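For the sake of clarity, the format in which proteins appear in this thesis is described at this point. Each number in the token line that follows is a code from a learned vocabulary of backbone shapes. One such record is shown here in full, so that the layout can be seen directly:
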Amino acid sequence: MNWFLWALLSAFFAGLTAILAKVGVQQINSNMATAIRTVVILVFAWAIALATKNQAFSEIGKRTWIFLILSGIATSLSWLCYFRALQLGEASQVAPVDKLSVVIAIALAAIFLHERMTWHHWVGGAFIFTGAVVLAYA
């Protein structure tokens, strides 16, 4: 499969996550819900990593460790905020606003990774931003 099919699967599972999480967070503190979800992800991710045995820890460089740890911290903060937002708001409003991460990722990729921004990025980002705002206030 190419990157696009993997990205579509990611979008599908992310959408499913919003619905399952909204139901799951109704009777529990959002931070506890995030912790439970994280344990499941931890076990699942390690099972996949160990089953595929692609790389040894000794082969992972210091810079890679630093950025993966920072990414993990950012993911944790995102999930804590996402679950709290789901607890307080409608999934059909929270999920689109959460997807503003796409616009933020495009901007950060241009600034820090020096990725070239084309008119496609600008127009697509504007559509995503507009769609998120429209759905958030629908």
Notes: The chain has two domains: 3-89, 99-138. The longest helix spans residues 62-88.
